[in-house]
Amino acid sequence: MKGGSNLEKILTKGEFAVTGELGPPKGNDVEAVKKKAGMLKGYVDAVNITDNQTAVVRMSSISASAICLQEGLEPVMQMVCRDRNRIAMQSDIFGATALGISNMLCLSGDHQNFGNQANGKNVFDIDSIQLINTVKRLRDEKKLLDSDEEIEGEVKMFIGAAANPFAEPYEYRPYRLKKKVEAGVDFIQTQCIYDMKMFKEWMKVVRDLGLHEKCYILAGVTPLKSGGMTKYMANNVPGIIIPDEIIKRMTSAPKGEGAKEGIKLCCEQIQELREIEGVHGIHLMAIEWEHRAGEIVEQAGLLPRPKVD
Amino acid sequence: MIVADRKPIEDIKEMLTPYKKILMVGCGTCVSVCMAGGEKEVGVLASELRMIDKMENKNWEITETTIQRQCEREYIEPLEEKFKEADIVLSMACGVGVQYMVEVFPEKIVLPALNTTFYGTTVSEGEWEERCAGCGECVLHLTLGVCPVARCSKGLYNGPCGGTDMGKCEVSKELDCAWYLIHNRMKDLGKIEMMGTFIKPRSWKQSLNGGPRKRVREDLKK
Fold first, then answer.
1. Closest Cα partner for B201 from A91, A68, A307, A144?
2. B177 touches chain A (CB under 8 A)
């Protein structure tokens, strides 16, 4: 076992994993974290705790992860390269593992221009692939970056990263995953998938490179809430491709039925993803829709979640 | 070249308000090429200031001059008399020029008329773009001549993030994604395997993070 987490055990056993997503509050409201954790508990194997996503200041990922642990929900602590240098990152990884956090996701991070601190200075001391490699070194060699001094204690961490099959240059994207695998990633979560054909093409190259046997791949899904949201995402979110037929299906849903149609579509997508060789689970990003996550997992036939130990 | 932008006229006006005899010094090198602080720009700014002076009774006496380079002592020293006569000096050079004039004439206050922005080039008439971050450890051999430090908004060393959109950066549709350019160059030049090379975390000591930098060549020292 690398991190010894529930998520790692489920994947190692060959079960189809389900991870969710929990955005911490824009403040220190503990109850808000507990409430969302309560909505997801029992429906997902682990939950990503976002790290100041879209560069908007929120409760830290490490704190919200610790709260989730207390609530009995396993966290995947996200860590972005935007806000910390290598000193802070390694220190926070020590701290996170000391608190019992055993999954993390290494990300570049959205540029600060998107958020509410657009005048801030970014860090990017190391990039996401270098971060993966740094965590692996802490875990496997018990050494800090650029140092041969042995660390005190053990860093047990199941190392994750993201992959986006829908960002240019498309032909390079499987090779970028290869680079992450070589850097030491254990599992990856993909950007939300709407263009199934494109995802299948990406997966084919991933399989040809043998990457599905070297890391666990969780396919990203985000339920569409309405026709308006569908159009907004298609036009405004970089790195997301929504095919016309989905836009048409969502925008032509009867008034008040958008959410229902979105969930139905999401469940169909999950079924289709389950059948793809090399997909080991799904990552359900029900953004600010945590209360519907359980319903989606249930409708998709993914309940009860397996118990492992 | 070093590219700069003139500060807003309001800011310059505010800086100069307490003074009477103003010496404006242009620089004939980089900022002249990027049309921010050469002889011509000194003339334009001086006219604007004289208009303000007329309308707002500032009692300014403005003298204009432009030297070849404000970053070299031999060009600055001949300004001694002009410096003596002035209450204040307004430099239209980059930040290096402002500071070096202070070092040559420490008894004077030198104000910056420009915001020094980047090391770059003229991409088309009236348009300049950043190309180098002066980071102290060049990787252009690893990225086939496109700098990820200066040109990727996140300074990534190992390929594009997930935000590339139609070859543009997630930060702005006006910005090319540096890694998209690097990828395409590698592909076009038959070196696509370079995209797979892991670039290890670098040392930032050679950059500003190691403290202000200094270059010494012992063989040239007297």
1. A144
2. yes
What is the per-residue pLDDT across A91-129, written as a single tens digit (0 to 9) for each? 999 999 999 999 999 999 999 999 999 999 999 999 999
Nearest to A250 by CA among A286, A287, A225: A225
pLDDT digits (tens, 9 = 90+) for A63-95: 999 999 999 999 999 999 999 999 999 999 999
The two structure tokens encoding residue B156: 């990534």
Check A169 against B184: CB less than 8 A apart: yes
Model confidence at A238: pLDDT above 80: no
Report pLDDT digits (tens) over A154-176. Answer: 999 999 999 999 999 999 999 99
Residue A123 in contact with partner chain B when CB distance is under 8 A = no
Q: Check pLDDT > 90 for residue A287.
A: no
Nearest-angstrom CA–CA distance, B220 and A119: 43
Structure tokens at A54: 């879209």
pLDDT value of residue B208: 87
Strand order in the sheet with B127-132: B2-6, B114-124, B127-132
Chain A residues whose beta carbon lies within 8 Å of the beta carbon of residue B210 = none
Q: Does A191 touch chain B (CB under 8 A)?
A: yes
- For residue B142, CA distances in Å to A38, A178, A253, B121, B194 come to 49, 18, 51, 21, 7
- Using alpha carbons only, give the angle A233, A238, A239 rounded to the nearest 5 degrees: 100
Q: Which of A80, A110, A128, A168 to probe by mutation at the B interface, max B CB count within 10 Å?
A: A168
Residue A137 sits at the chain B interface (C-beta within 8 Å): no
Residue B10's nearest CA partner among B110, B98, B113 is B113
Domain boundaries, chain A: 6-299
Taking the C-alpha atoms of residue B195 and residue A180, their distance in angstroms, rounded to an integer, is: 12
The CATH architecture to which B2-118 belongs is 3-Layer(aba) Sandwich (3.40)
DSSP SS3 for A131: helix
The CATH number of A6-299, from 2.40.400.10, 3.40.50.150, 3.20.20.220, 3.40.50.620, is 3.20.20.220
Question: Nearest-CA distance from A1 to chain B in Å?
Answer: 26
